[in-house]
Hints:
Helix content: 40-55%
Number of helices: 4
CATH class of the largest domain: Alpha Beta
CATH architecture of the largest domain: 2-Layer Sandwich
Order of helices and strands: HEEHEHEHEE
Shape: rod-shaped
Amino acid sequence: MPTAEALVKAKERELDLVEISPKAKPPVCKIIDYGKYQYEQKKKERVQRNASKGHEMKGIRLSFRIGPGDLERQRKHAEEFLTTGHPVRIQLIMKGREKAHKNLAFDKIKEFIKLLGEFGTLDQMPKLGGFQIVAIMKPIGGKK
Length: 144
């Protein structure tokens, strides 16, 4: 159909003539509401972007001398992250003389990991890096 005829039909219907595939022979055009088309495209983009954010890494920071109440609070946060499908990075930071007692710090982080055992699986064993110990837990299979 000639371009002029297509434009006339689009104006009659109070819609827009939109070029869909300009490189095709002949170029492909559609008569649609362009504002609605743009809205649908942005909506699809937004849904796709939110879906990709779904599994971002969450972090939990512990200290060597963390008290039982604070440990419980951090456990609840980690549990919430794991049940919603996010992997959790557990980080225990040592300062000053705490650095001399790395074995106690490893015990503390392993105890914390045991508390989360029913919500996630250990993806990366606790590893010493500088003055911190880092472990990563992934959520258990079907939970989201």
